[in-house]
């Protein structure tokens, strides 16, 4: 791979992918809607071509010889029902027209409820939420498309530039020394992935020709409770305030006034009965999954957020 295009390049996983690719000497077209953010993140990177764009309008003309298209783009929850399938169809069309390969960043929604064991790629997918059913339909679109693709399931993100995530909202409040809220029961263990780890694993997949035509699981470091997560944050920031718990009832009330929070309610079950990914397939066929310990990942994330706050982030 000499050149790639990253859709959603200003997002958490998208930006991590850009930096992982250029670290390997691969040229990147960073594609996103927000040009100011693109410039802030990548304006000084020689191997990055910044491309302000919209998947629905100018994606195909922006590919410009990229051999692989990384789809790390996201749509607001309240647009999923109407726009997710057309969004994927535009990406598939651009992939075909440019004779490229397609690598898709996905979440765990299509797996549905946890049955108590780590899920493998060949486990039956029986989503019970509308968002899970939409994600499964997108997988089917890829299978039907005949494009060379691979799809990777990830747990929740945290890391530099991973904004609009549950952990990001928590850290933003803590760094400002404001009252912070943790979503869900703080004693329940959940899984998170440090975005630079996810990007490393995904680029390794993208470089393996035999990985295409399949779905893959890329798990995080391990399970961690909110209490444990907060203990690392407090150790590094000396944050002393009590951290409250955002319950389902609280989010439902907020959802009366906020459409995206209203849409989040159906996914709250993942905070109550978390689902964990099995990465055995990846490790048997690709290699060791990068796994940064939470303590170090949290430190790196907070360091980045502090630098960004002072205008020194890169």
From TrEMBL:
Protein name: Short chain dehydrogenase
GO cellular component: cytoplasm
Pfam families noted in UniProt: NAD_binding_10
InterPro entries listed in its UniProt record: NAD(P)-bd_dom, NAD(P)-bd_dom_sf, NAD(P)-dependent_oxidoreduct
Domain NAD(P)-binding: 8-155
GO MF term list: aldehyde dehydrogenase (NAD+) activity
């Amino acid at each position: 791979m000499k050149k790639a295009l990253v859709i959603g390049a200003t997002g958490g996983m998208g930006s991590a992918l850009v930096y992982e690719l250029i670290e390997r000497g691969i040229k990147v077209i960073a594609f996103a809607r927000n040009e100011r953010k693109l410039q802030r993140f990548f304006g000084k990177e020689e191997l990055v071509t910044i491309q302000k764009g919209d998947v629905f309008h100018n994606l195909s003309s922006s590919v410009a010889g990229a051999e692989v298209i990384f789809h790390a783009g996201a749509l607001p929850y309240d647009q999923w029902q109407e726009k997710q399938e057309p969004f994927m169809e535009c990406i598939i069309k651009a992939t075909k027209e440019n004779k490229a390969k397609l690598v898709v960043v996905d979440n765990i929604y299509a797996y549905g409820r946890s049955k108590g064991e780590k899920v493998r790629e060949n486990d039956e997918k029986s989503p019970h939420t509308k968002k899970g059913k939409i994600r499964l339909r997108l997988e089917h679109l890829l299978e039907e498309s005949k494009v060379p693709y691979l799809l990777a399931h990830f747990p929740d993100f945290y890391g530099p530039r991973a904004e609009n995530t549950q952990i990001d909202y928590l850290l933003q409040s803590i760094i400002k020394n404001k009252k912070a809220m943790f979503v869900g029961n703080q004693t329940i263990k959940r899984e998170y992935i440090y975005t630079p780890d996810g990007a490393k694993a995904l680029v390794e997949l993208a470089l393996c020709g035999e990985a295409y035509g399949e779905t893959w699981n890329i798990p995080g470091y391990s399970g961690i409770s909110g209490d444990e997560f907060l203990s690392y944050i407090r150790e590094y920031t000396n944050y002393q305030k009590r951290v409250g718990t955002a319950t389902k009832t609280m989010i439902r009330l907020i959802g009366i006034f906020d459409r995206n929070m209203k849409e989040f309610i159906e996914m709250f079950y993942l905070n109550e009965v978390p689902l964990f990914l099995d990465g055995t397939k990846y490790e048997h066929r690709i290699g060791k999954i990068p796994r940064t310990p939470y303590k170090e990942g949290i430190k790196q994330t907070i360091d980045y957020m502090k630098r960004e706050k002072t205008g020194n982030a890169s």
